[in-house]
């Protein structure tokens, strides 16, 4: 797959992307692996989050869709969840605010009675060519959305996650192979990887598993809304497979980690990078 040069304003929307990403709308087939479970997915309006929401719903899970303000994209995700016969709950707001993180958890508990799977996936990034170009407030915002939100969500959710439940955090290949143009993002993704590894040990006595997924170049609205148009055109070509991945190609890993089939998988970081190894 190749994509033409294009650019959007952050956070970007799916409908303006060329070509349109594949979230598994027509391809994912469920088999009851998450039957009866309740999941919270942040950044579920589009990209990896939407693909995970669709997959989870087709595997039998109800889904809370947390998103910033991309209402049309979020409603589209909800339609796919409901078409799978599952309950969809929409919650918009800024995860940089710790109180909003707690509100997401409260809403899920009110709707579902518990949280079996927490997927902390929402992320922010911007491209800069020098350290001096990075505004102080953007540094703080990137850490708050990508890393601190994971802490606040977990802290609020853990009392409502039963034994056998799981937390899945989206890290990145950037945690091992940091791009100099994405310095704040790189730092948060390394932090997420370490948070998940430590939390897996901390929460083991509660029977809660914690893992992270490290995607490589995946075609989502984050790309055309945060990278220069000429970089978008060549995005993903440096991967050994020679192309960016589709969100639908990442979602099955989240399903495995969320399901009982992953009952002895905790503290893992799974690469979905098109062939680039991670340490």
TL;DR?
36% of the residues lie in helices and 13% in strands. It has helices spanning 47-58, 71-83, 98-112, 136-157, 183-202, 222-226, 229-234, 251-258; strands spanning 38-42, 62-67, 88-92, 117-120, 166-170, 209-215, 269-272.
What do these coordinates show?
- The chain has 279 residues and is of the alpha/beta class.
- The chain has one domain (35-272): NAD(P)-binding Rossmann-like Domain (Rossmann fold).
- The chain has eight helices and seven strands; from the N terminus they run βαβαβαβαβαβαααβ.
- It has a seven-stranded parallel β-sheet, with helices on both faces.
- α2 links the parallel β2 (62-67) and β3 (88-92).
- The chain starts with 37 loop residues before the first strand and ends in a 7-residue tail after the last strand.
Mean pLDDT: 95
End-to-end distance, in Å? 27 Å
Which residues form runs of ≥5 with pLDDT under 50?
A: none
* Structural class category: alpha/beta
Structural domain tally: 1
What's the architecture, going by CATH?
Answer: 3-Layer(aba) Sandwich
Inertia-based shape: globular
The whole-angstrom Rg is 17 Å
Number of helices, counting only DSSP H or I runs of 4 residues or more = 8
Q: Number of DSSP strands?
A: 7
Specify the CATH class: Alpha Beta
